[in-house]
User: What shape does this take?
Amino acid sequence: MSDRIAFQGVHGAYSEQALRQHFGDAAETFPCPDLTSLFDAIQHGKVKYAVLPVENALAGAVQQAYELLMEYDLRIQAEVILHVHHCLMAPEGTRPEDIQEVRSHPQALAQCAGYLKRHNYKPVPWYDTAGSALDLSKDPAAHTGVIASELAASLYGLKPLAREIEDVPFNFTRFFVLGNDDPVRGEYNKTSLVFATRNRPAALYECIGELAERGINLTKIESRPRRTRPWEPVFFVDFEGHWQEPHCQEALARLLQRASFVKMLGSYPAVRAQSVGM
Assistant: This one.
């Protein structure tokens, strides 16, 4: 199996930035056009790990990511939290006052809407943040800038005109590092799993209660439709602790008895919120 690490997007994507933050700049990267291709890359041994965006502090969960976690049998290796900073860039020789329109992914444009309005820049939706930088570098357009990562600016020879232009400073994206094996236990761990409840009153209350009764802190719960059974949701849960800890083992054993379906996604080294300024 290759030691390459997959990410979704073109070089310079925020996912690649998260990859470098976790594995270092020397890591051999493998860009994938979409999230399904990213999962397939691990499944077929093209890469050893993949970096998957799962939620943004402002935009919420990446729904397709959770659907694919259900579909594929992979293990979460680690959690990565990236502080996303948007950068306005343009071809060399362009001045901020020359800009009339700015291209980027609609989400990035929305996160910089106040900045664009203050400077009277017209937002132009593009398919991708790093992709907008790549396209502008290949085909420079007059009076045009893009919003992307500063990494994209350096990769594609564009000049940063303004940094950290996002309207809300607390813009964090959470990623999972995915692989095939169980990771080494860390100092601070989280466990992620997905389960479905039986069709009866208080079923969800009873399942979550198994964690509460053992003092386990639930850090996330998200419901998603169950593809094979309409109107019967599944619940994605993250909690503090490792499955090998006795109180976590007890809770999981009881959850298996109460739930109609349980799938473990992984116990892995996690990031404490205060360590990234959240």
Summary: The domain at 5-84+171-179 is CATH 3.40.190.10 (D-Maltodextrin-Binding Protein; domain 2). The mean pLDDT is 94. The first strand starts at residue 5 and ends at 8.
